[in-house]
Design goal:
CATH topology of chain A: Rossmann fold
Number of helices of chain A: 13
Largest interface: A-B, 15 and 22 residues
Number of domains of chain B: 3
Radius of gyration of chain A: 18 Å
CATH superfamily of the largest domain in chain B: FAD/NAD(P)-binding domain
CATH architecture of the largest domain in chain B: 3-Layer(bba) Sandwich
Strand content of chain A: 15-25%
Shape of chain B: globular
Strand content of chain B: 25-35%
Shape of chain A: globular
Number of helices of chain B: 11
CATH superfamily of chain A: Alpha/Beta hydrolase fold, catalytic domain
Largest sheet of chain B: 8 strands, mixed
Oligomer: heterodimer
Order of helices and strands of chain A: EEEHEHEHEHHHHHHHEHEHH
Number of strands of chain A: 8
Strand order of the largest sheet of chain A: 1-2-4-3-5-6-7-8
Chain lengths: ~290, ~425
Amino acid sequence: MTTKDTLLTDSAHVNGVDIAYVDKGEGDPVVLLHGFPDSHYLWRHQIDPLVEAGFRVIAPDLRGFGGSGKPQEVEAYDMRTIVNDVVALTQHLGISKAHIVGHDWGAAIAWMYAFLMPRRVDHLAVLSVGHPGVFSTPSIEQRAASWYMLFYQFPGVSEQLLRRNGWRLFKEIMGGEGDHQRYPRELAKPGALTAALNYYRANRSPESELRVEGNFPPVLAPTLGIWSSGDKALLEEGMTGSAKFVKGSWRYERVEDASHWIPLDQPEQVTKLLLGFLGTEKAAAVPTRRRRL
Amino acid sequence: MSVEHTGVDVVVVGGGIAGASGAANLAANGLSVVLLEKQETYQDIVRGEWIAPWGLREAQILGVEDAFGVGGAWEIREWTQWDETVAPAEAETVDMTRFVPGVGGPMSFPHHTVCELMAEQAEESGATVVMGAQRATVTAGLHPEVRYTHQGEDHLIRPRMVIGATGRGCTVGRQVGVSMATSVHHWGGGLRVSGLDDWPMDVQAMGTEDDKMFMVFPQGDGVARLYINFPTANRERYRGAEGMSRFIADFELACLPDRGKAVYAAAEPLGPLKLWPSVAMFPEQPIVMDGVVLVGDEAGNADTVLGTGLSCSLRDTRAVCEVLTGGDDWSPGAFDAYLAERKFRMERLHFGADIIAKLHCEFGPEAAARRRRVRALMADNFAASVTGLLNMVPPEDVPDFGFSEFFAERLFRETV
């Protein structure tokens, strides 16, 4: 049953882990990065239209999810490591510069990819999750909305709590949103739940929740931010506040009648927004290093 | 010429909850298992979708509990008993989550997806799962035989043991000479619906009004399984093209809050409406013989109104799997403990089902007066609700007095 929910075409061993991915079409490459607890399958409504519009679509299962490797240790899920997975995968595929599109954790990875690898990013499109500089000083309201992030911090306990009584707590957290019927099936596979929760453990410890994040380099790529009014965990200010961190052109789109899972709830609108954005803008000038005399 | 399969330890005939969970457990324990299911793919054919906490405990022991949670099972936490003799605001609610240690409340789930996941689990553990196995025929004996047809081809297996788990059809039982005495107290109908967004998903409802005994078992996310039990004399009431809409409309009930609007005005059918006589079945010959053992409904079952059919199935399967994985003695004598426990258990379940059916599935002014009296008795002394414990804890843990004629008499005739 679960095996039908896949469009994967290939797999590669990169950065010390097996990454399964979709590689479809020819043209300017677009990398689609899913979030928690999805897989490449999140993008099932966007992949073919992007291919038909002349893009080469790369949609990996991020480590820990779907058909990719699932290391069990928390350290394996540091954001930089996951960014390096994407770098290594694109290098493996002979891609030097790509449009980067991310949702949820995939958006957080896309932001960091844009900071660390400005020359490898053509256009950047982020869904749901704004710039980490905004998120690192959450309002009280936002803290309450992302209560579940803090909940995932107790290793060993939360798997058990989420699974007990027929995954009751997990189902309460997810509600009827996203691929809610598919998620428990995916996460019940050996090691999958721990791997997925490790994203939260490695990157949002209570300590880092409270730490005021330091300097992020400005994003030079033209950037499209998309947020949905039905998102129960993330606030609009997280996305709109991202504008000041983007030096390239900034575009913001608010999507109505969609939960957190925008690509599933408004598939045609997301496709249209991406097609109207990717490849349309020029990047801000990459700063040249000043010579100090 | 048939295709012959060799080296098979156990053939399980019937891929329902009993059969599929057994196949998964036996395969995980290293036995060579073939599971035969007559459906090509699992569909909603309206089977039991409520499982008691004590049944979930059996699922844990068998190692199949995740198939429930992952297959869409929803933990129900409260049980409200409505009734035409009680104002909606006065209806009593019981917390069901604390009866069995390590298990929460009962669960309601889509039967077919859970069976499918159990069959998948069996396959992943090394079992051979044959979907669309037709005309399965079992011959008992020291060297039992199973014949079936699959995609037009005849197959023959000579396993060491056959588990008959074909449910109320009793296909295997009839082939090996086990007949059933039956009794029918009332009829029932079931339908899976969505759209119950205003119905509290934590709460299961049961109740009696006019000539219907209704049940609402939430499955989360606005989905629920609805049942109505009704008098045998009235068994045609939901037949015909408009049957489904009459069934849903019958959830307009004065005893429910807002006259049941959260159900009757919102329910959208998700599957077929099935109607059945609520049969209690009593096997007339031993359910264990050389080479064959029966489990689940196929081995005899209590009136569906009690809701313990699936829990029983899993208990049977667990007991039989313990024999088959516990040693080399698979002779009928090795199943003596299973038979003794099952006999004791079924006596209690039949006794309890008779009380519940008489109390909630009989209709008219006299029956309503009886319910009113019993309710007063229960309010006065909580011990009078002992029969309801059968839905939570295993029958052997229910206090003995609940199964005495004295108790039944006191409950129904007000003799003190």
